[in-house]
Write a structure and sequence with these properties.
- The protein is α+β, with helices and mostly antiparallel strands and 688 residues long.
- The chain has five domains: 179 residues; 302 residues, no CATH class; 34 residues; 40 residues; 81 residues, no CATH class.
- It contains 22 helices and 20 strands.
- The strands form six sheets. A five-stranded antiparallel beta sheet has the order 10-13-7-2-18, with no helix packed on it. Strands 9-3-17-19-20 form a five-stranded antiparallel beta sheet. It has a three-stranded antiparallel beta sheet with strand order 1-5-4, with no helix packed on it.
- A hairpin with a 3-residue loop joins strand 19 and strand 20.
- Helix 2 packs parallel to helix 4 and helix 6 crosses helix 7.
- The protein is elongated and about 135 Å long.
């Protein structure tokens, strides 16, 4: 009985790493390195690109394991045209950063399907190193840098393997050579990093797009409550002399919101205004307190400075590569959004006054309320004014009366629920002020400002940050997004704008002790906290300390620090010319040392070549001619053919040396016992 032959589908079988052919092993290693390099890009690529990348890499890996033929050019062209069409559909262009990186990833993985010659491998290596650089266009964090360092080592290892065509060198050996090459080049990279001129804005093109936006130029009820669940760092601060103000004085001023449409608060001045329309009328007393701030990207053209920072030449914040100015509402703005990490120095004055000291027509903007919104709250404010005890009350007394109402029966909570679900939010403040009486800082500040305006007292909302972490990290106080806060300002005759924080009336610990509410931890974090409550805090502190070192020493290394370095070398007034001369001098010295080492290396003899000459001399005593082109196994065959059995030990020693030098587990150093054994074998053969 015969059986019809069935064509079995192609399935690559894994023979085991040690049994893979040399080419297959090297290809799989290269694919692993490529995958490691491309994974950080996946969150920035179009939805179709990561699956395509994974499929192509697995396809190429299967072909390598099965030693199957690579696909034809028409198949690759079809995939490439499809990828170009999808890129055009996703980005609406084939130019620009995002579209360019998408096409670069596609070309990289498709090129792996053309690895037929060494030149193809060189193209893959070049694309791989280029893709390593593109990762820093999205993020310059320490984690990305460590990941790309592994990628560079892997690509260098694959490059070393491509230049070791003989035998089957272990990956460990190739990796060691790659690490040595990287270490030899590290000093030159350090010198270039420290001395190569910083050319803003080109030096600051890479941005960390994963950074949180933080505050915004508008506010709805519940907006800041969502932000305070974010424990990421907004900025770091170090005060001059190590003098830290009391937590209740740490108000970091952000956007000032005046216009109210019943739902959303927004700025009175346009966010992109190039200069303030009227002066801030700021007067300060005392000496002030200087501090240094490292600001994370916030995607807004603002600096959350400590209240209050004058705009005088001596006190204005100093930022390298960007100009800052103070608006009429005392908020500091920048020429362009802060899309990169900034380091600046400023000075704060806690004893200050700002704004007009007497009533002005411009203050009418701060008493406007939209009609038809929150009628119960407006009626309550009118009733408060008409009460006999408040009939002749001053604005200060009315402020105290409203704060007293807040202290009686309101609850400070991170999860108050949603207000204004019905009637398009027209009664959100009514619901908070009379019904639930639960809220976060923006609930109290918005309701307070509405009541103040209903009492015909100019008022506005200020958003920013309040407080800081109590513990120092490397000398810095950390202000997190969870310190986001909203407070109020009222205008009082003769005093100008005065800060009033309604949150302090119901939750004084939030302001006095910087004790912000924390959301419930997740399952994993909760389990770790149950076993060791301090472990999560210790891990976070360690990670933030490392990130701070990375930010301060690497990412924030600026032109002024380059000049400070030159001053340490004795240059009193450093210039670009001094920096260029020093860089050229160091590079020239390194080039001369490299040339001298190359000359010495060229004239020294390879230890294996010296051994080869000594072997030829010993064989000559037996009458065996050893030409320079003869291999060790060729010499072993010649010894057996001319001398026979008496010289079998000599032939065996030659074959053992050949295996040691070129075998699967080739050694880089000669066994010291081999040469004495070979000398003894030749002596025995000569005596016979």
């Amino acid at each position: 009985m015969t059986h019809a032959l069935k064509k079995t589908p192609w399935r690559p079988r894994w023979p085991g790493w040690s049994h893979l052919p040399r080419d297959a092993r090297d290809v799989l290693f290269l694919l692993a390195v490529i995958g490691w390099t491309l994974v950080p890009h996946f969150s920035h690529l179009p939805w179709w690109c990561p699956p395509l990348t994974v499929v192509v890499i697995l396809w190429r890996a299967g072909l390598a394991v099965a030693s199957a033929a690579l696909p034809g050019r028409w198949s690759l062209m079809a995939v490439l045209v499809l990828a170009m069409g999808l890129t055009l559909w996703s980005h609406r262009t084939l130019l620009g950063k995002d579209a360019g990186i998408t096409m670069l990833v596609v070309l990289m993985v498709l090129k792996t399907l053309e690895l037929r010659a060494r030149r193809d491998a060189m193209v893959v290596f070049f694309l791989g190193f280029f893709i390593v650089l593109t990762n820093f266009l999205y993020s310059q964090s320490l984690a990305v840098a460590a990941t790309m360092l592994v990628s560079v080592w892997g690509l260098l290892t694959a490059l070393v393997l491509a230049h070791m065509p003989v035998g089957r060198p272990p990956l460990v050996r190739a990796g060691a050579v790659a690490a040595q090459a990287a270490l030899l080049g590290a000093p030159i990279m350090v010198v270039l990093f420290m001395l190569f001129p910083r050319m803003a804005p080109l030096w600051s093109v890479p941005q960390d797009t994963l950074a949180k936006t933080g505050l915004s130029g508008s506010l709805r009820m519940g907006g800041i409550a969502e932000l305070v669940t974010d424990e990421s760092i907004a900025f770091r601060v170090r005060f001059d002399g190590g003098v830290r103000p009391a937590p209740g004085a740490l108000y970091w001023r952000g956007p000032v919101l005046t216009r109210f449409d019943g739902i959303e608060w927004s700025r009175l001045e346009p966010a992109d205004a190039g200069a303030p329309r009227r002066g801030a009328a700021l007067s300060v007393r005392g000496t002030g307190l200087g501090y240094e701030m490292t600001l994370e990207p916030n995607r807004l053209p603002l600096l959350p400075l400590l209240e209050a920072s004058p705009d005088s030449a001596a006190d204005a914040p100093r930022i390298e590569g960007q100009r800052a100015f103070m608006r009429s509402d005392l908020q500091w703005a920048t020429e362009r959004p802060v899309t990169e990490r900034l380091r600046l120095a400023a000075r704060a004055y806690f004893d200050h006054r700002h704004g007009p000291q007497s009533d002005e027509l411009s203050l009418r903007d701060y008493t406007e309320l939209p009609p038809g919104y929150n009628p119960r709250t407006l009626a309550w404010a009118e009733a408060l004014r008409t009460e006999p005890r408040h009939a002749h009350a001053t604005p200060e007394q009315l402020v105290d009366a409203v704060l007293l109402y807040i202290r009686r029966g309101f609850t400070y909570t991170l999860t108050p629920g949603t207000y204004g679900d019905t009637a398009e939010g027209r009664f959100a403040i009514d619901e908070f002020w009379f019904d639930r009486k639960q809220g976060f800082c923006e609930h109290f500040s918005t309701a307070f400002v509405v009541v103040m305006r209903a009492l015909d007292i100019p008022a506005r909302i200020v958003t920013g940050y309040q407080g800081a972490d109590l513990d120092l990290q490397d000398g810095y106080h950390i202000v997190r997004n969870s310190h986001a806060h909203a407070w109020s300002e009222v205008w009082l005759d003769g005093r100008g704008w005065v800060r009033v924080d309604p949150t302090a009336a119901v939750a004084p610990e939030r302001v006095v002790a910087s004790r912000a509410l924390r959301p419930q931890p997740g399952i994993v974090a909760g389990a770790i906290a149950a076993v060791n409550p301090a472990l999560m805090a210790q891990w976070r502190a360690l990670a933030e300390r490392l990130n701070n070192h990375w930010n301060q020493w690497v990412l924030n290394y600026s032109r002024s620090q380059q000049f400070d370095l030159l001053k340490k070398f004795g240059v009193r007034s450093p210039t670009w010319e001094d920096l260029a001369y020093l860089l050229i001098g160091l590079l020239s010295s390194a080039s001369l040392l490299g040339a001298a080492w190359a000359w010495w290396d060229r004239h020294r003899r390879d230890p294996w070549q010296r051994l080869r000459s000594r072997i030829a001399e010993r064989l000559a005593t037996l009458g065996i001619e050893a030409s320079p082109h003869d291999g060790l196994r060729t010499l072993a065959l010649r010894v057996r053919g001319q001398l026979g059995a008496p010289a079998e030990a000599v032939a065996g020693q030659l074959e053992a040396l050949d295996t040691l030098r070129y075998g699967r587990h080739a050694a880089t150093r000669l066994d010291p016992a081999w040469w004495p054994s070979f000398v003894a074998a030749t002596a025995t053969a000569r005596s016979r």
